[in-house]
Fold Glycosyltransferase N-terminal domain-containing protein.
Amino acid sequence: MEGQEHIVMLPFMAQGHLIPFLALARKIQQRTGFTITIASTTLNIQYLSATIASTSNSQLDSNIHLAELSFCSTDYGLPPNAENTEDLPLSKIADLVAASTGLEAPAHRLILDIIAKEGRPPLCIVSDMYFGWAANLANNLSTKELIDFGFKCFKATCRKRVGHTC
């Protein structure tokens, strides 16, 4: 659709981040009609694709696109195909967080492709809090960055219901 806004979402590489980003994308798309692109590594995009297929509302999901960002886990001392926290022992999770900086260049290329196709940058980039590089990316590409701190909702619920911090 000509002139339709576009949002790019960059979830961290964990089911506990991917699924909430998909839910958020669906809510945004439902309320606004914007085009949403969720970008992640190949295996995470396969996971999201299967999730969308099994829970799809085709009218709602038609403007939610998935984009693969190249990532080679072994380049960062991780096991082959370790693209998600579920693929790693707890001792390697921090290494995956550090390795996630390798997604900056492919995300940059993706957004440049969107700009070339649409003639303007996305309305914003919604990034996971672990992607500190996304702020510079948004700034360099003349768009806005929104950071998702989804865990705070759970933490606030714990505080309210249990009476202490989690």
About this structure: The radius of gyration is 16 Å. The chain has one domain: 6-162.
